[in-house]
Specification:
The chain has one domain (9-155). It has 5 helices and no strands. It has helices at 9-29, 31-42, 51-83, 89-115, 119-155. Helix 3 (51-83) runs antiparallel to helix 4 (89-115).
Amino acid sequence: MKHVGKKSVSFAMEIILVLLMVVNAAVLIFLPKVITFYLEHDYNILDVFSTEKTILLAILYPCGLSALIVEFSLFKIFRTLVDGDPFVQSNVRYLNVMGTAMIVVTAFLIAKIFLLNSIMTMLGGLASGLLAVFCFVLADVFQQAVYYKQDNELTI
């Protein structure tokens, strides 16, 4: 199977990313009900205005919105792969946006470590921090590729 172009892995990833964005939006819409269900069943916290629920909402909404931004940016990057032209300035911008969104996730998960700590919070904070660095490095690599591509186009 091809990696770029129509009927490729990139096109399949576009479809998966659209589905992920829809699921992410649905989870964000129903987040208060999901958290209430989680706290009632796992921790037997029945108070509607509990501190835990407030903290989780304050942490998960920005993280969910950041995830939506990352998914949309990935969708736009995969769109350029399907079109067969990945080394464009817009992909550099999208990678920088993704890195910034991952820094937001990292910051909120680090804050959650001090408020409601868990192993997954620490691992998620570490992973999102590493992904932020990866996005910024990849943005620089793409920037160099854009320069080389433009230079090559001007020479021919």
